[in-house]
Design goal:
This protein is of the alpha+beta class. It contains 7 helices and 18 strands. The protein is 22% helix and 30% strand.
Length: 414
């Protein structure tokens, strides 16, 4: 099965006139960004992507660009993982007739957490997980290859791992890694796909589920760290080989937006909803769900309730139905592909992607962006209660060319 390493593109920085981000992409998907007012902040959209390393990785639709969170669709060649799908449609009903009778497979599973694990065993598990991350992010990342299970080594080459490690450094510059939780799992019988690890099953924040294999004993190390812009959540899945813990899979996800965690973003969304600020509430609910996502290895208990809240959030008329959306005023009509949020240096910005006709010049894209920003601010003046500014991005139909414009203002409330 094919592995997936999600790395947006190659990014470079340069600086131009104030309040302007110039975006131009070609078929090689290289992008240049410039913004003099962000000159002290690394503005690398690539750092916003998630990396998941696991031969069982689900399709890319599972993976969200966590700090760049967009609701909509992509009719133009937009970045491949910045478009986060909206709430998926319910699965189609099966046309196969229901099968009669019972098909049972018996298993027993237990999951010990943290201090419930024997201290010596826990220390060995933690050491295995942190040793892997230290090797992967250290001066000799190729040494991390030796810490994988044989099954995983068969799916990966050492040079590829070195390439991946370089991607981690470029995207995240991770530092300050610390262990939050350790799980030790025992299985008997036919293994299920997942096992619940719980402190309190009655509370969403007291439980989580992890992916498992048929190995009788396996473990997880959950860690957090910092990138140059946001918080990181690291999940390391371990299995024993010859009495040594080996890495079966790992993932790194961004777990904050504007340096706020999911609970803080959700609280902000609820406040905006109570004020009747539907657009703000919608974007914030979506963001809270996205930064709660840990991918296929780990599902935290709070993710599902947040997703349910998002599905019930009231949408403004401009975002009802399936995108692209048509936004109109007396001056122009805008074909809106995606609307979302972006976290930079502790602030949150609204991001709007719109499509422009072929052969549109950069100057025309700039004017279209300015017109869209003015339209948005007239229609949604309350956005400044939460967001620090707007980023409008024009995408030329049928090509990878684009042009971005930033408009900043301090939010009225924190």
């Amino acid at each position: 099965m094919q592995r997936e390493l999600i790395v947006d593109r190659t990014f470079k920085r340069h600086f131009s006139s104030p309040n302007r981000i110039r975006e131009k992409s070609d078929n090689s998907q290289s992008v240049n960004y410039a913004a003099s007012r962000f000159s002290s902040v690394p503005l690398y959209p690539a750092m916003l992507s998630n990396l998941v390393f696991n031969k069982r990785t689900l399709p890319a639709s599972w993976l969200a660009s966590i700090t760049l969170l967009l609701i909509g669709c992509s009719a133009t060649p937009l970045p491949p993982v910045t478009a986060v799908p909206a709430v998926p449609a319910p699965p189609a009903a099966s046309k196969e007739p229901a099968k009669r009778g019972l098909s049972a497979s018996f298993f027993a599973a237990s999951c010990a957490r943290d201090t419930e694990i024997d201290a010596t065993k826990r220390d060995v598990i933690v050491l295995a997980g942190l040793s892997f991350m230290e090797a992967l992010l250290g001066k000799d990342p190729s040494s991390a290859f030796d810490l994988f299970s044989k099954e995983e080594q068969a799916e990966l080459t050492r040079p590829r791992l070195v390439e991946m490690a370089a991607g981690f450094h470029k995207l995240f510059e991770p530092k300050g890694l610390a262990v939050d939780h350790t799980y030790f799992i025992r299985l008997k019988g036919k293994a299920p796909d997942r096992v619940v690890c719980a402190r309190d099953l009655s509370k969403p924040d007291g439980r989580s589920s992890v992916r498992v294999t048929s190995t009788p004993e396996q473990a997880y190390v959950l860690a957090t760290g910092n990138s140059h812009n946001e918080r990181l959540a690291v999940t390391i899945w371990l299995v024993p080989e010859a009495q040594v813990w080996k890495v079966q899979a790992f993932s790194i996800y961004v777990s904050s937006l504007g340096r706020r965690d999911a609970a803080q973003i959700l609280e902000l969304a609820r406040k905006q909803q109570a004020l009747g600020h539907d657009l703000n509430a919608l974007l914030l609910h979506f963001a809270a769900g996205a930064i709660s996502d840990r991918g296929p290895l780990l599902q935290i208990g709070t993710a599902q309730p947040i997703s349910e809240e998002f599905s019930k959030a009231k949408r403004p008329p401009e975002m009802e139905g399936t995108p692209p959306w048509s936004w109109k005023d007396e001056r122009a009509t805008f074909k809106i592909m995606q609307v979302g949020s972006l976290g930079i240096a502790g602030k949150i910005y609204v991001v709007i992607d719109h499509e422009v006709p072929p052969r549109t010049t950069s100057e025309e894209m700039e004017r279209a962006n300015r017109g869209l920003i003015a339209h948005f601010k007239r229609r949604f003046p309350e956005y400044a209660d939460v967001f620090a500014g707007l980023l409008a991005r024009a995408h030329e139909q049928g090509t990878g060319k684009g042009y971005g414009t930033v408009d900043e203002e301090e939010p009225k409330h924190d």
